[in-house]
Amino acid sequence: MTTLDELRDWHRGLRAQFPIITGNPEQAYLDSAATSQKPRAVLETVQRYLTTGNANAGRGTYTWANATTALVERTRTRVARFLGDPAPQQHSGVHFVSGATEGLRAVALDWLPRHLRDGDEIIVPFADHQANALPWLEAQRLLARQGVRITVHELPYDPASHDYDHHALAELVTGRTAFVAATHVHHVYGGDMNVHRIRAAVGPGVPICLDAAQSVGHLPVDVAALDVDFVVFSGHKAMALPGTGAVWARNTRGPAFAPGGWSGTPNTSGIAGLEAALDWLDAAGPERIRRWNTALAARLTDGLRTLEPYEVLGCQSSLAADSAVQQREGIVTFRHRGIGSNDLGFVLASHGLMVRCDGHCQARAGESESSVRVSLHVYNSPEEVDLLLSVLRSL
Ligand code: PMP
């Protein structure tokens, strides 16, 4: 019995909970790396919050305001618990942001300048999403204006395995290495970047900031096991509303993360939805979600590899291949050797197949040509993958 057969009933039960999916049977949403669809539980929670208890947080003398304050504080702990923090709030903290971009910028522009000293070195990824590259360069410029010079090294990326090159990384580390930024799951190549090997390569003392935009909600993310110092994610890619996300900070290596001075009104309805989304994901089971998405991605990569004109980017492993090197999660990016990616995108859209076609916001060491990205989530079905393959075969 294959993984997809084994999880079929479970998947059907979950898929039925997405009104936008069940309401559009002729469409296949294959762009969840950009943003996820929302289960009914999240939509209803937000509606209930806005129709029964909407108020601002932190300043109230009345029930709705107090309940909103409690909601915001409770959801901080909920995020920490979702990320496997064994002792939420002992040292650690959770800060709400609009998405991973804002979260990574807050670490770069608020925390990093307080942590770094003249002559320090940082190691950051340039083959990853620009949201995890540009802010670190911005921090370097900011510090330079204050007379603090830091060196920025590229986190070595191995184009053969599509993982970071952990040996080259270990060789880059010096007594002045003060910070490393990395990505959990690559947003173009779909590989799980083996974060535990980064910690092994850099040693126990260096703070690591993890861009978990493509892993939270897709697989278990456990801060205790990963031993990272920041986890930054987009709630809107994890079943919550647009404009939601969070930064979890361990706060034991370097100064405490407390950005922003005086904070204004939080995104209260978004936070209500985020709490519901994390409850929903925990009930669905992050490990089962991972198995489903990985199996769908394997079906797609295996199918594409039988179609001569297509080239799959990134790690070539499917479920059958050696996953000790690189595990592909639910993202598959490819090109047609003769048809441009945007043309391919229009053809696929005319069949109701919603994919992403462009350069995918990769930072400066990225692909020079655009490609088609298919990103899967638990509401996607094997039939949708098969329809995509049959349309691609017909071209
Ligand atoms: N990092 C990665 C790996 C991403 O895939 C994305 C979104 N495509 C981001 C950061 C930015 O996330 P957001 O758009 O929510 O700010």
Key terms:
395 residues; alpha/beta; Aspartate Aminotransferase, domain 2; 2 domains; four-stranded antiparallel sheet; binds 4'-deoxy-4'-aminopyridoxal-5'-phosphate
Q: What's the topology here?
A:
Blueprint: H1 3-6, H2 8-15, H3 19-22, E1 28-29, H4 40-52, H5 63-82, E2 93-97, H6 100-115, E3 121-124, H7 134-145, E4 151-154, E5 157-158, E6 163-164, H8 166-172, E7 177-183, H9 195-202, E8 208-211, H10 223-226, E9 230-234, E10 245-249, H11 268-284, H12 286-305, E11 310-312, E12 331-336, H13 341-350, E13 353-354, E14 356-358, E15 371-375, H14 382-393
Parallel strand pairs: 1-13, 3-4, 3-7, 7-8, 8-9
Antiparallel strand pairs: 2-10, 5-6, 9-10, 11-12, 12-15, 14-15
This protein binds 4'-deoxy-4'-aminopyridoxal-5'-phosphate.
